[in-house]
Amino acid sequence: MKNKNDYIAVCSRSFSSNPYLRKELLSRYKNVKFNEKGKTLKGTKLLEFLSDSSKAIIGLEKIDENLLSLLPNLKLISKYGVGIDNIDLNSIKKHKKKLIVSKGVNKRSVSELIILLILNLLRHTKNINKRAENKKWKNIIGNELSFKTVGIVGFGSIGRDLANILKSFHCNILYYDIEEYGISIGLKKNVKKVSLNQLLKQSDIVSLNLPLTSKTYKIINKNNLKFMKKDSILINAARGGLVCETSIEQFLRKKKIAAAAFDVFEEEPPKNSKLLKLDNFFATTHIGSITKEGIRRMGMAAIKGLK
What we know:
Distance between the termini: 13 Å
Structural class: alpha/beta
Helix content: 25-40%
Oligomer: single chain
Radius of gyration: 21 Å
Strand order of the largest sheet: 8-7-6-9-10-11-12
């Protein structure tokens, strides 16, 4: 039975363009409007879009004090995805709005991308592909992932899922997190909690899986990059801003660490980034959760959150 009283605004362009999610939402709610522009809504356009709605599904839209103070009718916000660095949580509380975030719905999509990025760097596929395209049939000796020490910075849903996958590669897992997490059954073997500096010193591969907050902003910088091994690699498929991009560019250019791969940047798309010009740097375009399966899981979680 459709709910006739709720007015739903779907701000997310990704959700709005997905036929499956549109159909599922419309089967539950009568009064729904979608973002048909194909662009992230900002400022007055976002305010106008939300003005007559009691509930909303948001993705990358910025939700701040100025916006919420002008939306007395908006009662509930359901997050499409898991990142909340675009939401002012203090203002949510101040204006008595309800925020629903379903944690872990994108964990497998992101974990699999991290494995892809790791293997790309270990086997030098970027540079080998360039050589093949230029008809230079010369190999580069790579490394195996198996039996390596992997440092996971951030041991929430994604970090733990990544650790589970890495069990198949017989990796030794070190983890660091600001928060305290219990280790799931089956993870205890070869999993050890250490300090951040210890993790950086001992790991062959470092994967960042933290949210972006005031505590984690540029958590990886010139002061601790110096602890990483010269043959180690760094993966960031979490949030731009976790790494000082100027510092990592210098360390990569001077070969103080072997390689890095980012799916996220502090500015997206990055403009005039020196990182993108490096042979030992690999980039993807913030695709961590962008799989057919991941989009459906995030979308259905956002629909459920409207209740």
